[in-house]
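C-alpha cells help. Our protein:
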Amino acid sequence: MSGVRERLDRVRGRIAAAAARAGRDPATVTLIGVAKTVDAARVRAAVDAGLRDVGENWVQEALPKIAAVGPGPRWHFIGHLQRNKARAAVGAFDVIHSIDSLRIAQAVDRAAARSGRRVQVLIEVNVASEPTKFGVPPEAAVDLLTAMRGLTHLAPVGLMTMAPLAEDPEAVRWVFRALRRLLTEMMSAGAPPEFTQLSMGTSGDFEVAVEEGSTMVRIGRAIFGERQAATGEARPSREGGESGR
C-alpha cells in the first residue's frame, strides 16, 4: 500500500504549492479522498497515512466500506443523492455535498430529525449549465438556501460544483471563480455565518480550484490510482454529475 502513501504526499505537496501561489494557508484546504470503487483496505491504508476525509458517490457501496474501514475518517457524500437513500446517507455520512433541490433537502432534514442529528450540507451548483450534470443553476442557489432556513436539522455550510472535463485546467478556471463569487454574494446577502465552504476541484483541476479559493478538493485517481469497474448499486441515469475524479 506504499503507493497510496506516496501519492497522498504528492497531492498534499501540490495543494500546498497552489495555496502558496494564491497567498493562502494550505491548512484551509480539506483534502477529500474519493473512494468510489476503491476497496476498504486501500482506504484504510490512506487513512493510516494521514487522510482524514473520505468521499463516496454511492450510498450502497459506501455502507459496508465505512464499517470495514472503521473509526478515524470523516465521511463525505459527494454523489447525486436520491430521496430514498436520504435516511441511509444521514446515518453514514458527516457531510452531504449534493443538495440540489428543496425536496432532497427536506428528505435529509426529516432523516436527520429522526436520528437526532444536525447534518452539514452543501448546495450543488451547475455553474457550467451542463445538461448531464446535477445541481441548481447559479441564479437559483440563493432561493434554495432561503427555502432551507426552516429545516432545523440541516447546517448549510457552502457550495459545491463539478467543472467540465478539460485537458487544460485553465479552461475551467472561470467555473471556480464564478462559484467563489457566488459564495461571496450569498455571504454578503445574509447566509449563515458558517456558510463559507467551497467544494470544488478534482484530480485534473484541483490546483486551479485551490488558487480560486476552494476549501475542499475531491481527489480520487491522484490518490488511489485508476479505478476498478463499478458494481452493485444502480447508478442515476445522468451519472455525468459524479462529484469526484
Q: What stands out?
A: The radius of gyration is 17 Å.
